[in-house]
Amino acid sequence: MLSGESANGQFPVNAVRMLANTALEAESCLDYKALYKAIHSSVMAKGPVGVSEAIAASAVESAEDVNASVIVALTQTGYTARLLAKFKPRQMIIAVSSCPITCAQTTTLRGVIPVLADDFKDTEALIAKGVAAAKARGFASTGDAVVAVHGVKEEGAGNTSLMKIVVA
Question: Which domains does the chain have, with CATH numbers?
């Protein structure tokens, strides 16, 4: 759409800025609750889902219900972030991982901001790191509700089984 103007035009920065503003305006008009319900109905029509997907769906719905500012996902492989992004929440998703490759891959997901952690051992510290990253980027403020999604086993993939609401 912008290849001609951004590659050869006189105003490439203005063209990209205008497209970004148009996209932001279009997204601000979405009814995220209705969008979630439509996606959730489509997913459930295919039959039962796994625990991780059920937690992701519940996290997105809960984030909307409590007007959370962000969703923090602890993820080693990016699977949890992908599941959350599939439901297209209004909130940004902060994907905390100790794997640089996972962080790089999650940059391609809608609404996901990766945060690289040194290790993946202390769940509460990892959630706090995600909340701090959200605050630093202006997505959350002190006192905001934040939905956190993670597993019981901090090391290992496919263990997302918990959702909780914390205060930023």
Answer: 32-167 (3.40.1380.20)
